[in-house]
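User: Run a structure prediction on this.
Assistant: Running it now.
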Amino acid sequence: QVHLVESGGGLVQPGGSLRLSCVGTGFVFNRYGMRWYRQAPGKDRELVCSVRSNGTSLNYAESVKGRFTGSRDNTKNTLYLQMNSLEPEDTAVYYCHTWDRTEEYWGQGTQVTVSS
C-alpha cells in the first residue's frame, strides 16, 4: 500500500527558509516520478515542481522559480522541497504526490505559513 508522509512545515517569517520532506513507502520509490503541489485557502491546488526518478527537477511554477528546489534521496525513499526567500503568498498546505498507471497517491499535507 502506497503511503506518503510529509513533514517540515511550520511558521516562518518572510524571507526565511524551510525544507519539506516526504517519505514514500509501499512502492519502489526509485522507479517513480514525484511531485510537490500546494493549495492555498480558497484556491485550487497547483503544481509546485516535479522530480523525476533520477532526481532531475522540472516544471517549476513561475512564482517559485529561483527560490524553490525539488530533490530526492532514493536511498532514503525521501522527496525534498527546499524553499528559500519565502513570501506570504507561499502560505499553503504542501502535498507530495505520485502516480502509477491506474491511481494517484497523495500525502496528508504539511502546512506552511509565511507571516511576520
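DSSP finds no helices and eleven strands in the chain.
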